[in-house]
From TrEMBL:
Upper lineage: Bacteria, Bacillati, Actinomycetota, Actinomycetes, Bifidobacteriales
Coiled coil ranges: none
The keyword Oxidoreductase is assigned to this record: yes
Molecular functions (GO terms): oxidoreductase activity
Family, per entry: Belongs to the flavin oxidoreductase frp family.
Assigned keywords, A-Z: Flavoprotein, FMN, NADP, Oxidoreductase
Protein name: NADPH-dependent oxidoreductase
Boundaries of every Nitroreductase domain copy: 17-174
Species this chain originates from: Bifidobacterium tissieri
InterPro entries for the chain: Flavin_OxRdtase_Frp, Nitroreductase, Nitroreductase-like
Domain of life: Bacteria
């Protein structure tokens, strides 16, 4: 048997290694056949137990896009030629189960529990990432929009999300109108481990200090006048950020999920 060979310089690896967030897009529509291909790629992502428990909403109404930009506090969201919001979706499966005589209002119905909530969220992220990678391979630029979760209640109302759904992330795409530098990545030795999670040592923290210096030399195109805060400073700031308005459980409960089981 011929030994398998590996082309480590293939287009897929190079596309992923050169991935960066694009926040400025050319005023150029994305062709319908490209949109169809991107959506097909998303559908071919892995799905837990083949439940297909995610959906994606393509935003074509400028008024809705403008509202999303308001929620995300990022004007470029409304300027993206192609814009999606991915949601975890047990609503469709609940309707299917009900049609098969399952009492979806009883305790025997478990698609609204914490396990399926997290797995459906994973499935939505995998589908989004597949679409994003395919878009980059076509020369498009993308930015993942976690900022849409600034106001989940408003997002649910805006998109008329029914019971047993919950928004996960947005994805904006288009022909790039900027070329940002690649962000630094932390050393593999502090992010990849073997067999078990290691004790955090002074050696690891010293490598983070070196990473801090690299990050601090990076200039984000959103603020070209100053370098980005060191990674450790970003962690410290976010570790005490007020998350009261971003708690998942209260909104998830209103959407019919029971995260306590």
């Amino acid at each position: 048997m011929t030994e398998h060979t590996y082309d480590l310089d293939n287009p897929t690896i190079q596309t992923l290694l050169n991935r960066r967030s694009i926040r400025a897009f050319a005023d150029e529509a994305i062709p319908a056949d490209v949109i169809d291909a991107l959506e097909s790629v998303a559908q071919h992502a892995a799905s837990s137990q083949y439940l297909n428990d995610w959906s994606a909403i393509r935003i074509t109404d400028p008024a809705i896009a403008a509202k999303l930009a308001e929620i995300g506090r990022q004007p470029y969201i409304a300027q993206a030629p192609l814009l999606y919001v991915f949601v975890l979706d047990e609503h469709r499966n609940a309707l299917i189960a009900k049609a098969k005589s399952v009492d979806i209002d009883s305790d025997e119905f478990t698609l609204n529990g914490s396990y399926r909530f997290t797995q459906a969220q994973n499935d939505a992220v995998l589908a989004l990432h597949a679409m994003e990678t395919a878009a980059y391979s076509l020369g498009l630029g993308c930015v993942i929009l976690g900022s849409l979760l600034n106001d989940v209640d408003a997002l649910i109302d805006l998109l008329h999300l029914p019971k047993y759904t919950y928004p996960v992330l947005g994805l904006a795409m288009g022909v790039p109108a900027q070329e940002p530098k690649l962000k630094p990545r932390m050393p593999k030795s502090v992010q990849f481990f073997e067999n078990a999670y290691p004790e955090i040592s002074d050696d690891v923290l010293s490598k983070i200090a070196d990473f801090d210096a690299d990050v601090h030399q990076y200039y984000d195109l959103r603020d070209t006048d100053r370098p980005v805060d060191a990674f450790s400073d970003q962690i410290a700031k976010n570790s005490t950020a007020n998350m009261d308005e971003r708690k998942v459980q209260p909104v998830a409960s209103r959407q019919g999920f029971r995260l306590d089981r």
